C-alpha cells in the first residue's frame, strides 16, 4: 500500500522526534553517570542527598535558558508553558537522581 503525503509527512515528524529522543537518552545516561559520582562523593563526605537550594537554582536556570532560546525555536506554545514543562521534566530527573543516590 502506498503512503499518501500526510503519512509521509507524519513519518518525517516521527523520525525527527526519534532522533531527538535518542540524543536525550544519551545525555541522560551521561548525566546519571555523573549523578552516581556525586552520590558516592556525598556518601563518602556524609553530605545529604537532596540539596533544595541547588534544585531551586537549576529550575531558575531552566526558565532563563528557555527565555534565551525561545525566539530561536519557533512554535506556538507560550514561553511560560515551555518553562513550566521544562521545570516539571527536570523535577522528575532530579527526583530520580536522588533515588539513585539514596540507593548507593
Detailed description of the structure:
This protein starts with a helix and ends with a helix. It has a single domain, classed as Chorismate Mutase Domain, subunit A (Up-down Bundle). The model has no long low-confidence stretch (mean pLDDT 96). The longest helix is centred in the first third of the chain and has 40 residues. 79% of the residues lie in helices and 0% in strands. With 104 residues, the chain is mostly helical.
CATH superfamily: Chorismate mutase
| Helix count from the secondary structure assignment | 3
Output the CATH class name: Mainly Alpha
Q: Mean pLDDT, nearest integer?
A: 96
Structural class by sheet pairing and helices:
mainly alpha
- End-to-end span in angstroms? 53 Å
- Total DSSP E strands: 0
Shape label: flat
- Helix percentage: over 70%
Amino acid at each position: 500500500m502506498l503512503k499518501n503525503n500526510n503519512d509521509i509527512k507524519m513519518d518525517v515528524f516521527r523520525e525527527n522526534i526519534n532522533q531527538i529522543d535518542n540524543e536525550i537518552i544519551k545525555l541522560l545516561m551521561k548525566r546519571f553517570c555523573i549523578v552516581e559520582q556525586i552520590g558516592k562523593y556525598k556518601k563518602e563526605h556524609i553530605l545529604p542527598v537532596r540539596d533544595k537550594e541547588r534544585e531551586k537554582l537549576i529550575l531558575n536556570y531552566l526558565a532563563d535558558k528557555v527565555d534565551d532560546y525561545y525566539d530561536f525555536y519557533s512554535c506556538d506554545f507560550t514561553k511560560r508553558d515551555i518553562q513550566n514543562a521544562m521545570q516539571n521534566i527536570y523535577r522528575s530527573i532530579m527526583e530520580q537522581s536522588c533515588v539513585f543516590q539514596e540507593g548507593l
